[in-house]
Fold this protein.
Amino acid sequence: MRSIAFLFAAWLCASGVQAAAGMTAGGVVLLQPEKVIGARVSVDKLAPYLKQVDAVAGRTLRAANAGPASGGFLVVAIRPGQQSRFWLDFDPPLPQAVADALLAGAKDVRPPAVNGGTVVLAMKYGVAGGTVPSRPMPSPAEWATEAKAAGKPLEIGDLVDRIWK
């Protein structure tokens, strides 16, 4: 089986940075161990899905070039039954119209089948001259609220399952 990390590294090298167009793609962040993700979804199914989500994000974020400079994450979660959910963690936040368009466009991409639990990862972007975040992982406001309410550390898949709506 091909390594998920290797596949994403190859994808990023091939995709190229598009800073001149007002948007910079900064890579994929695995929010669960590679072994967990690999056991739940085939790399051959996950990679094309993420490329489609990235294409939607790229089109939407390039169109937002007139907005404030921002950088952040598009968090992607997929669970059994080909269900997907997305969260944004940008600083400063994206304009509401851009955020809504990004979330709606990503939701329109059909996710691959996953088995045995939720798969969670994130994609980094810089928008309108903003820089790609250097922090290692996202923390959407909804996640922070739920983690605090839990009163104990939660595995990221468990956290996402608790707030999935």
Q: What stands out?
A: Confidence is low (pLDDT under 50) at residues 9-20. The first helix runs from residue 4 to 15. The chain is about 40% helix and 20% strand.
